[in-house]
Design brief:
Keywords: Membrane, Transmembrane, Transmembrane helix
Distance between the termini: 58 Å
Number of domains: 2
Protein name: DUF1707 domain-containing protein
Structural class: mainly alpha
Helix content: 40-55%
Strand order of the largest sheet: 1-2-3
């Protein structure tokens, strides 16, 4: 006679999404200094614990029982060993990408508004500033023309955002030695 373990039911897609979003929030709140192998182990264990806790009830109830992601991550962070004191290049890159995306979307919306207002300004077009960039837009029956000046400041701020979020100053710190 063979004994088979009880089959676990397959979670619906919205329960899996809820679980993965919760795990993503926990991951965001975990200390950045923890080694990635430790962080991965914590998230894998938590995924299994959530699935086990949700047996016979909803994932929402299991997550509610575990508590807020921030508090759970703080509890896990206390038990994780500190990792290398190094810059977080991926975090800096992600922040720089978000900043550039916001700038691009704002510029596109701004130019669309200026293109609509430019016919009233005649042949000279309309000039306007958005942050530190100056936009000149001409919209006549003959041509539509957009000129941008001052975009180098956007790139300099992007570098600052990247370096700030990457915590580049960590390069100058020495790790303490146990002794």
């Amino acid at each position: 006679m063979t004994i088979t373990p009880p089959a676990t039911r397959r979670r619906s897609w919205h329960e899996r999404i809820r679980r993965e979003l919760y795990l993503a929030h926990v991951s965001l709140w975990l200390e950045d200094d923890a080694p990635s192998t430790d962080r991965t182990a914590v998230l894998t264990q938590l995924r299994g614990d959530l699935d086990a806790a949700a047996e016979g009830r909803s994932m929402r109830a299991a997550i509610g029982e575990v508590g807020k992601a921030r508090h759970l991550a703080a509890a896990y962070s206390d038990s994780l060993r500190p990792g290398p004191n190094r810059p977080l290049w991926a975090t800096g890159g992600a922040a720089a990408c978000v900043w550039l995306t916001v700038c691009l979307l704002a510029a596109v919306v701004f130019v669309i508004a200026l293109v609509q207002a430019a016919p009233l300004a005649g042949e000279d077009g309309v000039r306007a500033h958005l942050l530190w960039s100056e936009f000149t837009v001409v919209n006549t029956p003959d041509r539509v023309w957009v000129e941008l000046d001052g975009q180098h400041w956007t790139l300099l701020v992007t570098v600052g955002v990247f370096l700030g979020f990457a915590r580049v100053w960590r390069l100058g710190r020495r790790r303490g030695t146990a002794g």
